[in-house]
Amino acid sequence: MKIEVHPIGVVETEATDIPRHWSVSTVEGRLVINRQFQEGLKDIQPGQRIIVLFHFDRSPAFTPSRLVQKPPHRSERLGVFSTCSPVRPNPLGLSILEVLKVRDNVILVKGLDMLDGTPILDVKPFIPPPPDSGSPESENSST
After folding, report:
1. Digit-coded pLDDT (tens) for 122-139
2. Which of 23, 80, 96, 98 has the most CB atoms at less than 10 Å from its CB?
3. Close Cβ partners of 112 (under 8 Å, ≥ 6 residues apart)
4. Domain covering 9-56+91-141 in this structure, CATH number
């Protein structure tokens, strides 16, 4: 089976010090979506959070020796699927960003953990689970 995806846009940011994860980022930038997809941005609103799927295009090639890695902020080695490492079998990233503004084919965002020029594969709305859903997030919020 072969799966083929194509970028729908690119990240633009002047920032050079990019945080390791969107959850600890205040970096602002732009998601420049290819004009052929501009109409699909119609209902994205400032204040909304969006999920951005992207390609870790500058990560080194994955090898079996990378199945267990030591994240820079941890003391122990973890399986690659227990980390947010950009070095993975399929170099895909996911970030949840805050929308600041939408102008034509550009989404201004906050929370970037992507480098300037990173290919964007998809954008989806972030829909949090209901507070009483029994999800781990809702269980942790009461403690």
Report:
1. 999 999 988 876 666 545
2. 98
3. 11, 13, 15, 18, 22, 25, 27, 28, 29, 95, 97
4. 2.40.30.70
pLDDT tens profile 59-71:
999 999 999 988 8
Read off the amino acid at residue 96. I
Name the residue ranges covered by the structural domains of the chain: 9-56+91-141
Q: Which of 52, 58, 56, 57 is nearest to 121 (CA)?
A: 52
**HSE of 130, CA atoms in CB hemisphere, 13 A:** 3
pTM: 0.86
| Both tokens assigned to 135 | 């999800």
In whole angstroms, what is the distance from residue 108 CA to residue 122 CA? Answer: 16
